[in-house]
Design a protein that fits this description.
The complex is a heterodimer. Chain A is an alpha+beta fold. Chain A folds into three domains: 197 residues, Aldehyde ferredoxin oxidoreductase, N-terminal domain (Aldehyde Ferredoxin Oxidoreductase,  A, domain 1); 198 residues, Aldehyde Ferredoxin Oxidoreductase Protein, subunit A, domain 2 (Orthogonal Bundle); 165 residues, Aldehyde Ferredoxin Oxidoreductase Protein, subunit A, domain 3 (Orthogonal Bundle), CATH 1.10.599.10. Chain A is 37% helix and 11% strand. In chain A, the strands form four sheets. Chain A has a six-stranded mixed sheet. Chain A is globular. By secondary structure, chain B is mainly beta. Chain B has one helix and five strands. Chain B has a five-stranded mixed sheet with strand order 2-1-5-3-4, with no helix packed on it. The chains are: A alpha+beta, B mainly beta.
Chain lengths: 643, 77
């Protein structure tokens, strides 16, 4: 008898309309656990090399893990993976909410989607049953409207809907896939892939909760989390959201401003988590924001999600679309030197309504701002929008045009790298893209291990792929017990790229990769400041699955396996170390404040990457996993030659 | 000596609500950052700004008129 998971994968062929169920063995689940690793298995098996990301041959995988749906904080998350239309390599994104648990209770662990429907459809999965339904009447609707229409048509307002918005339908290269109209599988353009398949949505409903192996053990872990939340290092995050980090990032000089040209922003306090909590969270005027202005995911007691409501002024915001996280207040805020929180919230609302990754959208806009301020784009180029630094109104208008692919927005919908290539005029110098994906608001010139991670990560720049430097630098004493489990016993110097720092980057990357395969929330579980540490993560797997001999080492291997599968996927596409390139801007000094003058050194970073590849067991010249490494990870079946 | 304190987000709970995280504090003349944190009963990890500088060393001596900002946020990941 299996525990925690259904043992069922739904295969959907949109071209033929056929739906079949596969029932893999327990050993399969033990090897891959779910999420990103399980998705990589299907992509390597079913996706030939060289396909067009927006063509019918691409395969989109939606995957849960063996843990999804267990009654504990931080497990209701899911992976969307396919070949990325933004990077041309592997695409991968995580998202949360209530949909993941509901899909588990609807009877399936993953959905593998091939082909393309002749006209728009949506997939309806409920209590083990499944069917494709016409979605022609839903195509073109923004997320909130489509969600309501589906619930009404199927007669149940508790149905969870995961969908693309009009941006995904129109192939905006950084379109995402959204549940609850505000929880995003945001990055790498998975929404554009879903749109290219004419698949509008997946709707789920179910009551078939898989049994866990040790209910008492799970309850004990859950109770521990709830009891320790207030004293934990995520207590502030819970109440004030991720924008709580704005002030501390300003302090340490890693608050990206002027499109990553500076690490400090004078207007930071107007757009931080404390200001958001006090002014625009739903219920704030009556002092009820703690109740009404915060939301959560299935079974999670942390309640870190923002709910913003603005009823007056120029930028009205509907609370149905949630509220901005730190990345969003950054890319629409400090990246563009904008300190108008209402305008930022409006841009967030547009992203959630139309279905776009706020990081790539905001950072593409900030590229345009820099090009304009440097005189390389004119009012004629920008539909007459004045992109002077700080112009909030122009930013909001541009966000909407990108979502609708209108005017100048149509060019920006291609992402900043393709836009810069088309515009030329030296605007490529302003890019902050890694493999074509825009950098998030944690800066490699300050947190040096991110220079290695952003550059070598198979799906481009990503800030949720490793533990950041402070944990092993100045904060080490607080987290030494947990870091010892990963094999680290000594604090490292600030801004160093020592061998130990690189080894830490890799080991923490494996743990984060494991968490993406277990579909665990990286605020709730992790190697340092998170609510639960590495040993508790192991315990969670044991009590849910009944695999009592699972160890931390085994779980690290799952993460390493997933990472190697991704490097192998890219290698088949001809994407290797030659694509592990740092944008030139990062070799120029930051301007102003704490981080004034800080820059990366090319020789130092290349040497760090050499060392990283050596630790990973990859060929140093190409960055491709060796045959020996693949065998070690039971990936001998992976074929590195183009399909 | 007197320092000007500004506490953000969850650290505001250390002061009365109406203070909105701001307070002028009287400290011993040779007081250090560690002394201040102990006085405020803050044992969790914090990020400290003193007159706009990022200060990590808890033995740092505070001065008359220092603007001290304390944040307790996650470091990212």
């Amino acid at each position: 008898m299996t525990h925690g998971y259904n043992g069922k994968i739904l295969h959907v062929d949109l071209t033929s309309g056929s739906l079949t169920v596969e029932e893999p063995e327990e050993a399969f689940y033990r090897k891959y656990m779910g999420g990103s690793a399980l998705a990589m298995y299907y992509l390597l098996k079913e996706l030939p090399a060289g396909v067009e990301p927006l063509g019918s041959e691409n395969v989109l995988v939606l995957a849960l893990s063996v843990l999804t749906g267990a009654a504990i904080s931080g497990q209701s998350r899911m992976t969307a993976a396919a070949k990325s239309p933004l990077t041309g390599g592997i695409g991968d994104s995580q998202g949360g909410g209530f949909f993941p648990a509901e899909l588990k209770f609807a009877g399936f662990d993953a959905v593998v989607i091939k082909g393309r429907a002749q006209k728009p459809v949506y997939l309806w999965i409920h209590n083990g049953q499944y069917e494709l339904r016409d979605a022609s009447h839903l195509w073109g609707k923004i997320t909130g409207e489509a969600e309501a229409a589906i619930r009404e048509e199927l007669g149940d307002n508790k149905i969870e809907v995961w969908q693309i918005g009009p941006a995904g339908e129109k192939g905006v290269r950084f379109a995402g896939i959204f549940s609850m109209s505000n929880r995003a599988n945001g990055r790498t353009g998975m929404g554009a892939v879903m749109g290219s398949k004419n698949l509008k949505a997946i709707a789920v409903r179910g009551k078939q909760r898989p049994k866990v192996a040790d209910k008492a053990g799970l309850n004990e872990l859950a109770r521990w989390g709830a009891a320790n939340l207030e004293d934990s290092d995520i207590a502030s995050l819970a109440k004030y959201g991720t924008a709580d980090t704005t002030g501390s990032n300003q302090t340490s000089g890693t608050l990206p401003t002027y499109n990553y040209n500076s690490g400090v922003f004078d207007g930071w306090e107007a757009i931080d988590g404390t200001t958001m909590y006090e002014t625009i969270l739903k219920g704030a005027p009556e002092g009820k924001q703690d109740r009404e202005g915060r939301d959560t995911c299935y079974a999670c007691t942390v309640r870190c999600k923002r709910v913003v409501e603005i009823n007056q002024g120029k930028y009205k915001v509907d609370p149905h679309y949630g509220g901005p996280e730190y990345e969003t207040t950054s890319t629409f805020g400090n990246y563009c030197a904008i300190d108008d929180l209402a305008a930022i919230s409006k841009a967030n609302e547009i992203c959630n309504q139309y279905g776009m990754d706020s990081i790539s959208c905001g950072a593409t806009i900030s590229w345009a701002f820099e090009a304009f301020n440097e005189g390389k784009l004119t009012l004629e180029d920008t539909d007459g929008l004045d992109l002077s630094w700080g112009n909030a109104d122009a930013m909001v208008q541009l966000t909407e045009r990108i979502a609708k692919r209108e005017g100048f927005g149509d060019l920006l919908a291609e992402g900043s790298e393709r836009a810069a290539k088309q515009v030329g005029r030296g605007t490529e110098a302003y890019l902050i893209t890694f493999k074509g994906q825009e950098a998030p608001a944690h800066m490699p010139r300050v947190k040096r291990s991110l220079a290695v991670i952003y550059t070598t990560n198979p799906f481009g720049a990503d800030h949720q792929s490793s533990e950041h430097d402070p944990a092993i630098e100045g904060d080490f004493e607080f987290y030494s017990d947990r870091l010892a489990v990963l094999g680290f016993h000594e604090a490292q110097e600030a801004r160093s790229l020592s061998n130990e720092k690189i080894r830490f980057a890799m080991a923490s990357q494996h743990m984060y990769s494991t968490m993406d395969s277990l579909n665990l929330c990286q605020f709730v579980y992790g190697p340092a400041w998170q609510l639960y540490g590495p040993e508790q993560m192991v315990k969670l797997v044991q009590v849910v699955t009944g695999w009592e001999d699972v160890s931390f080492e085994e779980l690290q291997k799952v993460g390493e396996r997933r990472l190697n599968m991704m490097r192998a996927f890219n290698a088949r596409e001809g994407i290797d170390r030659r694509a592990d390139v740092i944008p030139e801007k990062l070799f120029t000094p930051l301007k102003g404040g704490v981080s004034d003058g800080w820059k990366l050194d090319k020789t130092e970073v290349e040497a760090a990457i050499d060392k990283y590849f050596e630790y990973c067991g990859w060929d140093v010249a190409t960055g491709i996993p060796t045959k020996e490494k693949l065998e070690e990870l039971d990936l001998g079946w992976v074929d590195l030659r183009p399909g | 000596m007197e320092i000007h304190l500004h506490l953000y987000s969850i650290l505001r709970d250390k002061l009365p609500e109406e203070a909105k995280g701001k307070a002028d504090l009287e400290l011993e003349d040779e007081a250090t950052l560690a002394d201040l944190l102990q006085r405020l009963e803050i044992s969790r990890r914090v990020v400290v700004s003193i007159n706009g500088d990022h200060v990590s060393d808890r033995s740092h001596r505070l001065q008359e008129g220092d603007e001290v900002k304390l944040f307790s946020s996650i470091s990212g990941g």
